[in-house]
Every structure is written in C-alpha cells, then in structure tokens.
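Deviations from the work plan: none for this task. Representative record:
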Amino acid sequence: MSKELAKAYEPREVEDRIYDFWLSGGYFHAEVDENKRPYSIVIPPPNITGQLHMGHALDETLQDIIIRFRRMQGYSTLWLPGTDHASIATEAKIVEAMRGEGLTKEEIGREKFLERAWEWKKKYGGRIIEQLKKLGSSCDWERERFTLDEGCSKAVREVFVRLYEKGLIYRGERIINWCPHCRTSISDAEVEFSEHDGHFWHLRYPLADGSGYVQLATTRPETLLGDTAVAVHPEDERYKDIIGKKVILPLVGREIPVVADTYVEQDFGTGVVKITPAHDPNDFEVGLRHDLPVINVMDENAVINENGGKYQGMDRYEARKAIVKDLEEGGFLVKVEPIKHNVGSCYRCSTTVEPRISKQWFVKMKPLAEPAIQVVRDGKVKFVPDRFDKIYYNWMENIRDWCISRQLWWGHRIPAWYCADCGETIVSREAPGACPKCGGIHLHQDEDTLDTWFSSALWPFSTLSWPDETPELKYFYPTDTLVTGYDIIFFWVARMIFSGVEHMHEVPFHTVFIHGLVRDAQGRKMSKSLGNGIDPLEVIDKYGADALRFALATGNSPGNDMRFTDEKLESSRNFANKIWNAARFIHMNIDGHDVKNELPAELTLEDRWIVSAFNTVAKEITENLEKFELGIAVQKLYDFLWDQFCDWYIELAKTRLQAGDETSTGARQVLVWVMTNTLKLLHPFMPFITEEIWQTLPHTGESIMVSEYPKYEESHCYPQDEEEMRRIMEAIRSIRNRRSEMNVPPSRKARVYIATAFAETFRKGSAFISRLAYASEVEIGESFDLPGAVTVVTADAKIYIPMDELVDKKAEIARLSKERETAAKQLAQAEGKLNNPGFMGKAPANVVEGVRAQAAKLSEKIALIDSSIQALQ
RNA sequence: GGACAUUUAGCUCAGCUGGUAGAGCAUGCGCUUGACGUGCGCAGGGUCACAGGUUCGAGUCCUGUAAUGUCCACCA
C-alpha cells in the first residue's frame, strides 16, 4: 500500500487474498500446547442443507471475535467447525427432490436412499462451510467434523448403549407427537403451539341404563372413535351417582365406563370429559390410572384405520366432517360454539401434530436433568445474560421423557436388534452375530434412526474423539464458551449440558453466550415467506466482510434481538474507509523514512495524551470482551479511532510533521505505534482490513492475528497530560463554536488572546490553537484589555478574538447574558449541594470535591463573563 | 395461566456495580482545511413510558400500572 493507492478501501481486492494468507500460515490450527492455556469453542453446526443467513453471520461473527481475541491473548485456541446431518430437514429435501423424478423413498429402498443422501451431503455440505470462510471465520478446518461421520457415530452408539445399560433408555408404547406429513414421531420440543380458530362441539352420550344423557364438549369429534371412557371429577356432586355406570358411545355403540379422576375441572364446560387414551396425552394418563383400553384409530398418515368402522380410509378432517354430520343426524349434537384454542404443529413442516400411541425409544429424563440443573445452580455453567437461567430451570424441572426414535432413514440407526427366534432385544455397539439369549441368528436391526439432536447433544466431546481418551479431549474439554441463539436452548444447549455431565462427568462449557435474532429494518423476523431476508454474501460483496461483522457487532447486547439496517452497514463501511485513510495518511508521512514501531524516548504533550487515551481504551475493551459486552467494545473502538485518533491526534501531529524537522520523527513513531496497536484492538472485529494495513506498516511478526493483544500499561498513564489537553481542546472547540456562530470561514484567520491561569499549558498548545482554531497568532497572558473583541469563556480561560467588524455588540451581550444565566443556574445547583448537610455528611469525599471544584470554576466563569459584558457596554 | 424482556433525542440504540443524559443516522448552518465529501467543523433536539418508594442524590435500586414483544404451560 502506498499513497498512490485508491482513496477508498476496496474489500473485494483484499479479503480472499488475506484469507488464503491466513490458511497457508496455518494460524487457525490449534494444537495441544502445555505451555499455553487452552481456549475452545465448538461451532453450532449448521445444517448441511443450509445456506448462510444473517443468523449464522451473527453467530459466527461473535464466535470469531471471541476466538481471535483469545488467540491474541496467547491462549491455544480451538474453534472447532462442522456440520449437522439434520435428519428430518435433509430427508425432507431429498424426498422432495425425488418427487420431481416421480420416485418415493419406499420405492427405491433404504440403501439407495442413503446413497442419495450421502451424495447430497457431498454436494451441499461444503457449501455453507465455504460461506463461513467468506466471513473471515478462523476455524480450525483441519478438525472439521460432521455429526454423521464415523467418530460421531461411534460416540452416539456408545452413549446409547451406556444409557440403555443404565436403564435410562427404554422402548415402549407411549403417546407421542406424530407428524403425519413427515411421517415420524417428534419430541415435545419440536412441537410449536399457535392459536387457531376452531369449534367446540357439545355432545350427548346416552347412559346405558336409559336413565338419560351426559353432556360434554370436544374440539376434536373424530377422536370419539377411540373413546374408552368419560370422566368426571370425583367430588362433583352433579355426577356422583353416575360414576361407575356405563354410557353408550354415539355412532360406535360401544359401552364405555364413567370414571372419576381429579384431572377433570369441575367448572370447565359441563365438567364431563371424553377420554381418548390413544390420541390425547392427558387422556393417556387418565387411561393408565383407570386401566382403560387404548384404541388407536389413525394410521401414520392420520387416516382413520380399521378401528374406525365406516370412517376407515378418511383422513382426520374428512372424518371430522362426516362424524359431526352423523352426530347431528343421530341427535347427539347439542350445539356448536366457535373457540380459539392452541394447536400444536411440526416445527419443520407446520403440519398439525397428531398425538398418537406408538412404540418408540425414550430417554428417561429425571435422573439426567437433576445434575444438569445443579451445575447451573453451582455456577459451573453460566448463561450470559443470566436471566436465561430461569428459562433453563423451568424447562429442566418440568421435563418429560425424550422421544428419540424417528421413523426416518437419514440419521444414526438405532443400535438395537430383535431376535426373530426368541424376541430378545439386543442393544450393542456393534452388530451382534447371534442372539446372546437363544443363539438364534435371525436378528433384525431396529428400522428407526435417532433424533438429530441426540448426536448434536454430544458435539462438544464427540468432536474431540470421545470415547477415545485423546490428548485433545483432555486439553480442550470442557470447552470455554458456547455461542448460540436463545431459540435453541432447549433443543441443544440443555441437552449438551446433561450429556456432558453424564458422559464426561464435566460440564461441556463454562459459559453460554446467548444472542438474539437479527431482524429486518422494521423489526420483523427475517423469513423466507416474508422475503425480507438479507443475504450476508451479497452484503459482503457490496460492503465487505469487515463492514458486515462490524455492523452485526454494533449495539450487540447479549440475549437481545437486533435490527439490521442499511444505515448501520453504511456507517460500518465508512468506518473501514476511515481506517484506510488514516493509514494512507500515515504512509504519506512515513514512507521514505526509517520508522521504528516503538514509542520515542521523548514524548510531547499530545503524544502522552493519545498514548494515555489508548491505554485506557485497551484496558476497557479487554474488560468488555471478557464480559461479552461486544457492542460496548465496538462503540469505544469507533470513538477512539475516529474521534480521538483521527480527528484530534492526527490533526495535532500535522503541526510537527509539516515542520519537517527532527521533531517529526517522534510524531511518526507515535502515529505508527498507536495505529498498529489500535489495529490490534480492532482486529477481532474487522480482521481483513486490520491485517491488510498492519502488514504495510512497520511491525514485527508474521500476522496481526497472532500478535499480542495490547495490554494496559501502568507506565502509559498520563493523567496530567490528559488534563492539559482537555483544557486546550476545550479552548479550540469554544473558539470554533464562536466563529461558526458568526459564520466566519476557516480561511479568515484571526489573532487569539488567551487570558488564563494555565499559561504554561496554553503555551504548549498554542500551535494547536493556531491550526485547529484558525488563529493567525496566539498571545497568552494573565489578562488583556481588549474591549469590543469577540469573547469566549471556558472553564480555564478567557479568550479574545478581535474581529470588531464582525461583532454585533447587542447580540454579543445577549449571548453572554444567556451563557451567564446557565452558568448561574449550574452554580446554584452546586451550591445547593454544598449547603446540604445530608450531602456533605454522606456523599463520598471525591464527589464532594468534584462539586466544590465545579462551583469554583463556575463562579470564575461568571466573573469573566461579567467583565466581558461590562467591557461591551 | 406463568415467566422474562423492552419502553431514553425525529429514527436505531448505548448508558457496567446510583453522583449534573450519550453515539450513529436524520435535520440545519458553514467548509476545495495537502488522509478521507464514505470527509471536516459547528448547532438544534430528551419532565429517560407512568405512579409511588428507598436515598443527601434515581435513567440507574425497590413496588405497582400501562403498552409492545418473546418463551413456557395447554381446560377436554
């Protein structure tokens, strides 16, 4: 880079080249290094079917910021990448693609289907990985994993067998959530509830002894086919004498009992409930308590089966219509009410879920949940922000057994075999040759696969080669931080915690850094159906990856959603350009000189000021990053670089640089030193531009990404100089302000007289006042007699600018009077405090001192203003 | 039904453990200032949702209210 280069930063010319440079340098690769402390993050593995969206971009950006920061701090950092096979989502896509060819998965069979799936993985699995690289993600690509690879599969089988042997995995007929479209069971977490308009059908069931009817209501009349009881509350006086009697199920004619169960609410509806154990989770429980028969009336397509009599073959909604019609004709329908009620649907395809009895595999959750709750209570796992603790506890404490079997082919096949000869179930890490019970060889493996989340739950250790005890596993586990959105706390985070505690006897990570959703400019969720999604790749192409990352980090507050706007992107792009131009300026001034990247022995006032300011910002940003306050860190970097360094220090330095004498050497060194160190602070956020510039400036080391993150240095604190610069800067600002008010262009220079008690300070600053406050000459003294000059009063000085012809005396007096008024108001406030015995007695000394100093300055200022007004009059 | 979050300048949001309200964008005025107009300088604009309370002092802590949003539960 040199001064001939483009005026504006061109990310497209830089990013791919820099990324290749990092890859070839091997900087992303992590090794076990006993001389360093480990720091590890496992990526939330994106689906192989996925395309990079803003949610990923945010998640990856946050992780990369953290991992780059820790790497520069000297940790041996591992960011372990990979992808998820996403059984249900991927299988759905493949099935859909096959439909285009007129094929179903049953037609081609399991083996051929899986061949297609692996081809799919080969074709698309790498796509999202390439997209992650565009963001600048510093993952250790040599350790990339896939949830269905050999190692992860081994871990899955190991866990399954262990849990089975411990009695924590069992198979049984239970009521589960069934998706008739995906034709598989899904877990409770995979059901989404939303409010629908429905109907409430009030029905009469005749008593078998002919003594009358019971009246009840239902939202799902078709389930009547599977009713095996009606229930009332045991203490309900209205129904005391029918408990134990029978009713005749309308249309079906079956006699079913009236049972008493406290599950029934007396004041809801009529206080009578129909019980369908096969198609309602609560009814299932009632059925268990009263030993009721379970009649499943629907098949896997939610079509009425052979138990449905004349309704067999109808789908559940057709059957509903037919049954309502028949009920009405039979005189069983009393009335129909409209009702709003919540209906569960499949989180993948949105089809209404059908609760259905089915034989499935389950994980017994209570014994796993308890220790998983404890590790959070003990602070071994911390949520950031910590309010997510509650959500986690609430879920874990009320958790039900986890249905883990899926009627899908793409996934980890359940390692259970059934003996055709004796019926034995064999759960084993490897396919058994013969039945251990009867010696039979007619074994058949369970057809089902495991919930995708079963394998993701093991991700923090399965990716580190567990169950093998490798040095990597020992060194990098537990991982340090997990970065993810609040939307998958239940699906993933909670399950990783209990899995880690159970199998590793150690939490999977110490911190869970939760972020929110990226919303569009109107605050709406980005979604395919709304078409309001913003493609991160297009953004990168237009603005650059650094601008995208910076925009995503700006205003980021843990756990909160954020809006993504073009303004934010433009502002970030402009910031990158600002950095670029600061670098260009430095080059214009150092090229051709031999400039060392170190602070000179002799520092000037402004040097000490910027060094001190840098020192403060380095300290604060490190603290912010350690506390995951990335948005705050971004803000401080932006302010420091733009406002302090560019708008002030560079402008101040020009005085020496343009003098061209030996004093300019010091300025060059300070410019280079502050700039390169600021680039380091900024590098985790904007990796590309910082590397590109850092390489062209004097530096030691191969890459900024493996340089040392700046640390707070006691020796770089110059509070005295900061105070002096503050005085000078205030004077400059005040003069500019006055000139601007009077519309004096910068080209119109004027003499400036400064009457001050800090003559020494202002003497040091007089060149700056000339340059930045457009003074032709600066005179400093104790007082001046310049009636009629424009007067500017700061806390430390009274400044005269003789521009008589520009002064409107009346306006000037009015302005000064107004200024006096506000000063007097502030003074009164301060004095109020000082006269308040409560304040004086209880406020800390430094606060009291501050107020006292302020009061003194104010009364001085008022005196100065008064004398100015007098002079004008 | 329960829980949580948000409410601060026209817009988007900062404001950590309480000490006289900030930024970006937008607006207005001025500027060919030898890095940058994707820029520079200056300005205007806020009873910090509302009502109480704690405190010498509250945007910040406590209680309640309202609006908005999210999650959990699922009474058929």
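Chain A is about 45% helix and 15% strand.
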